[in-house]
Amino acid sequence: MPVLRLALAQINPRLGDFSYNATLIADYVARAHEAGADLVVFPEMSLTGYPIEDLARRPDFLADARQHRDELATDLAHRGLGDIVVVLGLPTPAHSTEPSTNPHAISHNSAVVVQHGRVLGQYHKHHLPNYSVFDEFRNFVPGTSVAIIHVKGVDVGLVICEDIWHDHGPLEALAPVEPGLVLVLNGSPYERDKDDVRIPLVQRRAQELNAPVAYVNLVGGQDDLVFDGDSFIVTASGTLASRATRFAEDLLIHDVKASDAKPYLRSRVGALSLIETDAVLSLPKAPLSVSVRNDDQDALRDVWEALVLGLRDYVDKNRFPSVVLGLSGGIDSAVCASLSVDAIGPERVFGVSMPSKYSSDHSQDDAHDLAGRLGVHLRVEPIEDMVGPVESQLNLENVAAENLQARMRGVILMSLSNAEGHLALTTGNKTEIAVGYSTIYGDSVGGFAPLKDVPKTLVWQLARWRNAEALRLKQTPPIPENSISKPPSAELRPGQVDQDTLPPYEILDAIVDAYVTHNRSLAEILALGFDRATVERVIGLIRRSEWKRRQGAIGPKISEMAFGRDRRLPITSAL
Q: pLDDT tens, 125-164?
């Protein structure tokens, strides 16, 4: 039984930065080569970054991808890395004669095989997802043939991401070949509890094919998506054999026991692309020590690391030197500030306390306490002298006067952003965004919303988790206990608390989750035991707030139904 030394290169590309990505890929190929790997596999769209969206329909973008692919292949050969077989993802042009249900699509989502400075062959993704955050049906032409890479006497099947989620497709077509190994290139975004589905699926596919399956995934933040990595290999029996880290780049190397190729079976597959390499059986290598990461990572740690990675990559990939955010002394701004420090360091985080005549002393004290714990910059900019003249001139009162305070705070933050180059963070959470409990052009202003997909009750859980983690590491808890324990309030009028106008957050979050995430109807939510008046009111608030959400900043997706490209509803509606 042949043994292939396989390397899974879990990388964090920068979308559209071909030179950076090519250099990154070459460096990982060198590391894999040094470790004696026969085959190194990169994720879906690894040369371009992912998702490329409508860039897939730009001929100049496709030409750049091809040019850098060819230059990368030549560079690998010049560096003495030509003998290793490299599989990487990128878009490739589709021929006009190829069948497509979308006449505007001009490219494939492809995996190419490179060796000795040449592209030996390619495979095109069959199943193009058109749900949730994906628009691949809009942008790509589906593939129709099955691909086998012949490496060291082993037939290695090749598929891309969505292909493994369908019973009928390339995996079913591969089965008669009885491949010795299957490679799956992925750009699979993080969602809470996604591994509960992802790993069992791959294990089932391995058992169906009676072949080991290697799953390599992107890592990093791209706009509102976070890719968690967590690449892994399972045996033919479905046993988890090896696993990469989460939320960080990694090179996973594993000796895979694969069955011999059965060339006489290839004729069973009609549209088969056979990619021949000249990798031959070599002398046995010194065995690798095998250790499987025990996945004891708790769910709150996963969420925290996803938010940190999404924020860090948005800041750094867009070349912002720093962030600025309002520090009110409340729980949301405290968690956002803590995430920012973990993402980019305290020296790049600028907090602004903006007290009004209604701001309590304890809130201002909590903001200063937070800044001291985190070591971030803090400045105080009172808003009363800005609010008073406008309020007086326009005769504002009640909600209009309250909103004016929030808008003046927005003016301060955006002015500092413009003057000093910071990325302004808006600190609203998913619950507030759902029901419109925010001031448009006020506390909703900013370029990125770290908590956009985090319900209020989860914000509290994350705060407690982060403080407990600090204590575990013998560090100062970053979030003041008073920010966690006190009743939340916008402090826009005397004695105001959120529950003056909203149901308790435990109830509100449950209704929002049922209506938004699970698309349950009024009747279905009432059947869960909630009060009719409360449910009708919450649903009404959600429906009437679509216009606000459409104008809001993006933020990292952590749920199966985030506000943004996940959920697309009309603004103007009689519902």
A: 999 988 888 889 899 999 999 999 999 999 999 999 999 9
Active site residues: 44, 125, 161
Mean pLDDT of the chain: 92
**Are 188 and 245 in a shared domain?**
yes
Q: Which two tokens stand for residue 318?
A: 């867009």
* Angle at CA of residue 8, ends 5 and 13, nearest 5°: 150
Query: Which has the closest alpha carbon to 151: 280, 1, 266, 8?
Result: 280
CATH number, domain with residue 311: 3.40.50.620
Last residue of a domain, one of 497, 527, 543: 497
Same domain, residue pair 137 and 241: yes
If asked whether residues 309 and 230 sit together in one domain, one would say no
pLDDT-above-70 percentage for the chain: 94
Which SS3 state, helix, strand or coil, does residue 356 take? coil
Q: Are 340 and 323 in contact (CB under 8 A)?
A: yes
Answering whether pTM is above 0.85, one says: yes
Distance separating alpha carbons of residues 256 and 279, to the nearest angstrom: 16
In a domain, 387, yes or no: yes
Phi first, then psi: what are they for 128, rounded to 5°? -105, 105
Q: Does residue 99 share a domain with residue 31? A: yes
Q: Who wins on pLDDT, 492 or 348?
A: 348
- Strand ranges for 163-307 from DSSP E: 181-186, 213-217, 219-222, 225-228, 232-234, 240-243, 250-257, 272-276
